[in-house]
């Protein structure tokens, strides 16, 4: 793929739905097929519109009764969709209207979009796989819900994280990674205008009861660090090694951390400016917890351990420090974090974390939310600290 194509793929979210998933999505609509008037707000190369047409043909709807409308912000995509949907036509043609436009602008009251808006007047089926990230999937969902309120049924293919942002919509998890990308997916079925709940997303990362959640060190990222890292840095990994060298520090990764214990020595790092995200070293010193970002699901435990000696941790591990470096409070918190109650709470708040096919990791925000709403009082933490296994509180 050329660099230009890759950039477009990333900025416009051009990850196409497979034909199989597209056909599957069509099965969710309840509206009588004889009356379908289909709209894809981000039609790409037309795979969803084609799938809708094929389903209608299979159900005996005559081709000249098929009505498809598709918009895409990328002119090339619109041309591809035209070529693809042309193949549907035989002697008689379906009605196909494809436009090159910004759908969010159109749906949110684009002043000069009268032509596009006219095409939407009798739509009752909205099918889509909008771009993801920067809340775009939610913005497309909201815009369609509002514009087609009371008159259309909507089926969207969305990232699993949508389930974290919106509740009271019906969604089905897709198994595995049918689109070949790391994000897990859900198929959302919704009647436009039906009330749904937007969950609060922002959680402040301020200290809660003196606890602070910090991230591990990011070793490699092109362009970061001083001097900026290059592709060569990524390939040769000059600042990390599986062998110890004098002055280098141990660095723990998720796999090195268990419930109440850890093993160091698999990775050594030369700490310095060249690291992708240099952090103040004090987060890796003194009493603290290391918490796996991929919990130990079989145990229903976050997999947290208390640590006191100097050791770094990588980005797949979170660090929890306490303002007064109180080891007892930290041990109590560790027992709390390793309890099933905490895993359940995190998944309840952000269901995608529990979807293991796509390896979503817990974040500092998840812990901040937990702290804000569920953290036991300091006296209770001191009592919990008594359950911290005494002997394991060091390298295993
Ligand atoms: C994930 S792709 C899906 C394409 C196709 N519907 C499919 O399912 O394979 C998202 C599409 O949205 C288009 N897009 C991104 N932002 C848009 C916008 N504001 N208005 C219209 N289309 C947009 C991209 O060009 C891309 O083709």
Secondary-structure map:
Blueprint (H helix, E strand, L loop, with lengths): L2 H10 L6 H8 L11 E3 L6 H12 L8 E6 L2 H12 L8 E6 L2 H5 L6 H6 L5 E4 L7 H12 L5 E7 L2 H4 E2 L2 E4 L11 E7 L5 E2 L12 E5 L15 H6 L3 E2 L7 E4 L4 E2 L2 E2 L5 E2 L18 E5 L11 E4 L4 E2 L3 E6 L4 H11 L2 H10 L14 H11 L3 H8 L11
Parallel strand pairs: 1-2, 1-4, 2-3, 4-5, 12-18
Antiparallel strand pairs: 5-8, 6-9, 7-8, 10-19, 11-15, 12-15, 13-14, 16-17, 16-19
Helix pairs in contact: 2-3, 10-13
Question: Would you mind describing this structure in some detail?
Answer:
This protein is an alpha/beta fold and 396 residues long. The protein folds into 2 domains: 3-198, Vaccinia Virus protein VP39 (Rossmann fold), CATH 3.40.50; 211-385, Adenine-n6-DNA-methyltransferase TaqI, Chain A, domain 2. 29% of the residues lie in helices and 19% in strands. The chain has helices spanning 3-12, 19-26, 47-58, 75-86, 103-107, 114-119, 136-147, 162-165, 231-236, 327-337, 340-349, 364-374, 378-385, and strands spanning 38-40, 67-72, 95-100, 125-128, 153-159, 166-167, 170-173, 185-191, 197-198, 211-215, 240-241, 249-252, 257-258, 261-262, 268-269, 288-292, 304-307, 312-313, 317-322. The strands form 5 sheets. A 7-stranded mixed β-sheet has the order 3-2-1-4-5-8-7, sandwiched between helices. It has a 4-stranded antiparallel β-sheet with strand order 10-19-16-17, with helices on one face. Strands 11-15-12-18 form a 4-stranded mixed β-sheet, with no helix packed on it. Helix 10 packs across helix 13. It starts with a helix and ends in an 11-residue tail after the last helix. The mean pLDDT is 89. The protein binds S-adenosylmethionine. The site of S-adenosylmethionine (SAM) has 23 residues, from helix 3, strand 2 and helix 5.
